[in-house]
Amino acid sequence: MPRKLIWVIACIFGSVAALIPGKSRRIFRINEKHIIRPCGLEVRLSHVYRYVISGIIDFINLNYRSDDEFRQVVEIQGEEHMQVALSLGRGVIAITAHYSAWELIPRAVLLLGHKIGIVTRELAHRGTSEYFNNLRARCGTVLIDRGSGIARLMRVLRDNTAVGILIDQDTMGVESDFVDFMGLPARTPVGPSQLALRFGIPVLTLHISRGKDGKYTLVIDEPLDLSEYEGDKGYIKLTADLTGRIEEWVHEDPEQWVWIHERWARRPGFAPGLR
Q1: Virtual CA dihedral for 39, 41, 46, 47, nearest 10 degrees?
Q2: Could you please report the per-residue DSSP string of 186-243?
Q3: Residue 190: domain span
Q4: CA-based nearest residue to 103, from 147, 154, 143
Q5: Burial of 198 (0-12, 13-18, 19+ CB in 10 A)
Q6: Helix 23-31 crosses helix 45-62 at what angle (to 10 degrees)?
Q7: Is 275 part of any domain?
Q8: Using CA atoms, how far apart are residues 199 and 88, in angstroms rounded to an integer?
Q9: Confidence of residue 118 (pLDDT cuts 50, 70, 90)
Q10: Residue 207 lies in a domain
Q11: pLDDT tens per residue, range 160-192
């Protein structure tokens, strides 16, 4: 499928999806009321769907394209930061978010000559989950099921692999704490920060975004200095700083982030979620 057609399809389906009443639309309206407007952002639900749909279709489409064709669509900035982090031989915890076509990130890192793994979870529909996991593994991405425990993750890291983890959602069943995100406390996974500080594993952030020309840019940031996070609650500060970087991406182009998730549903002190 030509990529220009993919964008046209995403625009059409995004506009239609935004008109359909349902849970996602209700969540967006809540986030619009409490987060988007107070932050002075301009976000249209149809555009949020547009980026999600185009990102998924691009991921599927590019999986059947050559490496050269992939490189023509995805540009990488900051590749030296990944090289420096991996030179220590301890692997890398690569923090990212549900932003733009995030599924394209693993292959882009693989094409730099590095090993890449991602922490995944089983989707509600088993067939869909298997389909996407097969796509992810086609190019050599190591899949780490979230329920497999720390031992599996540590084995992959010891093989000097960059492991991608998304921390921008309130994930059930994982250790989390509240840190500020977009002006309000948001329950955020703290496991990656605890792991990094306990074993001295380099941590960096990276994200991909779609430009007006239809191409994507993957930006790899410098590794964080873990010596700044010493102490019993250092992992909370590290999680907050990682979340702060995600907030910067959202402010850069808010419509490329997934606003249809109940990010602030659970509140500190068992207070009611946003309504």
Answers
A1: -130
A2: EEEE-HHHHHHHHHT--EEEEEEEE-TTS-EEEEEPPPP-GGGG-STTHHHHHHHHHH
A3: 3-270
A4: 143
A5: exposed
A6: 120
A7: no
A8: 12
A9: very high
A10: yes
A11: 999 999 999 998 889 999 999 999 999 999 999
